[in-house]
Amino acid sequence: MDLPRVFTIRESSHRIHNPFTADKFAVLGQALRLAPGTRALDLASGSGEMLCTWARDHHVTGTGVDVSTVFTEQARARAAELGVAHRVDFVHGDASGYVSDEPVDLAACVGATWIGGGVAGTVELLGRSLRPGGLMLIGEPYWRQDPPTQDVVEGCHASRRGDFRMLPELIGHFGDLGYDVVEMVLADQDSWDRYQAAQWLNLRRWLDQNPDDELAADVRAELSTGPVRYVKYAREYLGWGVFALMRR
Ligand code: SAH
C-alpha cells in the first residue's frame, strides 16, 4: 500500500503537505504550551515536519504513521537532520484503525480525516489513543464562503457541499462530538499559496525531466488548468485550520 506517485511529484519540494507554513506550525506548537516529553501520535504524518520541529523546539517525543513510503523516508531523514531521531520515529503503514499501545498526551491527524471516514470517525479513532485530559489535533478544510454552485464545489476538489462545513458549523461539530475547542491556528491565502502554487514549479520541473513518463499527459493537463482553477475556487472558497480539542 502506498500513496499514488502523482502526489509525490506534485509535492516533491514540500515539507508540509497542507496549506500551513513552518511559521504556523511554530505558532501552534507555542500556543499548545507543550511540556517537554509530551508523547505524541501523528496519524498521516506525511514528511514529519510537525513532529520533527516540535521535537526540536519543545522536546516532544512520539510516532508518526503514514502510508507514503517516500514521505516516511523524508520524515526519517528530517528527524536525523534536526537531531531528533532519538525522540521521534516514523512508521510506514495504514493509519486507519491505528491505536497506540500506550496512551499518548497528544493525538493528531492533520489533513487526512478520511482515515477515520470523516471528522467524527477520526476524533473517535484518535480518542482511543489519547490519555484522559490529553490534547487532540484535527487539521481540516472548511468553506470560507458558502459555495454557490456545484462548479465551485468541484473546483475545490469536493463532490458535495456537505463534504466540508462552514467554520462555525465545524467548530460546533467538535462540540457535538463532546470536545472543547481549546486552540486553533488557521491557514490564510498566503499559506494556501505556499501549498498550492509551490506545486506548479514541481510539476513543471518534473515534466521537463520526464517527458515520456506515463503520467506526463496528466501532469501537463494539471499544470495547464490548475493555476486558474485554484485562484478561481479553492483560494477563495476553501479555508483550512488545525483545531486543538479536549474531551469535555
Ligand atoms: N500531516 C501531514 C501530511 C498531510 S497530507 C502534513 O501536515 O504535512 C495527507 C497524508 O495522508 C499524506 O502524507 C498521505 O500519504 C497520508 N495518508 C493518506 N491515506 C493514509 C492512510 N490510510 N494511512 C496513513 N496515511 C495516509
Question: Helix and strand layout, with pairings?
Answer:
Elements: H1 5-10, H2 22-31, E1 39-43, H3 49-58, E2 61-66, H4 69-81, E3 88-92, E4 104-110, H5 119-127, E5 130-143, H6 150-155, H7 167-176, E6 179-186, H8 189-209, H9 216-237, E7 238-247
Parallel strand pairs: 1-2, 1-4, 2-3, 4-5
Antiparallel strand pairs: 5-7, 6-7
Helix pairs in contact: 2-3, 8-9
The structure holds S-adenosyl-L-homocysteine.
S-adenosyl-L-homocysteine binds next to strand 2.
Q: In what order do the strands lie side by side in the largest sheet?
A: 3-2-1-4-5-7-6
**Uncertain segments of ≥5 residues (pLDDT<50)?**
none
The percent range for strand residues is 15-25%
Q: What is the CATH architecture term?
A: 3-Layer(aba) Sandwich
Which ions and ligands are bound to the chains?
S-adenosyl-L-homocysteine
Calculate the terminal CA-CA distance, rounded to whole Å: 36 Å
Largest β sheet strand count, sense and barrel closure: 7 strands, mixed
Number of strands: 7
Helix content: 40-55%
Category by helix and strand content: alpha/beta
CATH superfamily: Vaccinia Virus protein VP39
Order of helices and strands: HHEHEHEEHEHHEHHE
**How many structural domains can be distinguished in the coordinates?**
1
Question: Per CATH, what is the topology?
Answer: Rossmann fold
